[in-house]
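User: Hi! I'm working on a homework problem where we have to compare a predicted structure to a textbook description. Could you give me the structure for the chain below?
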Amino acid sequence: MRILFAEDEADLNTIVTKKLTQSGFSVDSCFDGKEAMEYLDMMDYDAVVLDIMMPRADGYQVLKFIKDSGKNVPVLFLTAKDAVSERVRGLDSGAHDYLVKPFSLEELVARVRAMIRTNHGASASVLEYKDLLVDLSAHTVNRAGRFIALSAKEFQLLEYLLLNKGKVLSKEQIENHIWNFDYEGGTNVVEVYISYLRKKIDGDFDEKLICTVRGAGYVIR
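Assistant: Happy to help. Predicted structure tokens:
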């Protein structure tokens, strides 16, 4: 899943970006509200994590920009302000969650995952489709009771397909949600990883779950 993280404190920005990346997210990070809005104008994200007090535009202004743009993306506010009134203001402004500094990196990751699941209509950390089970917290995959080892990027791709099961995803949608702006790989990266995933998920089974819709994209169904 692709995350936008906006935080003006450089050290915290680096630490959180690293943790989110290690947790399997593709992360675009920036240091002020205006830059965050520029990213949002160019790209669709699965979740946005915003510091409230940022230069050039604060978190509330960025959240308003998201709402005015009609983007359906969950937002988590980070702030040093721990008063109940501040939390109420953040949630009433349309944020999906609110985390007070200092915070646990593990809790942040768990809250981001929960926001994404809820936004896709999934209520649990285990995604299930037919005989396929994917545990998003443990990063494990089983099909028909058999453990399947996936690379981090293969897992991200499978998660994205499952969260959108039944919906045809274009090559561009997949590329934009799984790879960062700074990716410099080949133009056929989506096809390559779909091929990898098919061999592991479908290769030994009669029923194939990952389907190609010619001229449109890929879908799990």
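For your comparison, note the following. Residues 6 and 30 are 5 Å apart (CA to CA). The mean pLDDT is 90. Good luck with the assignment!
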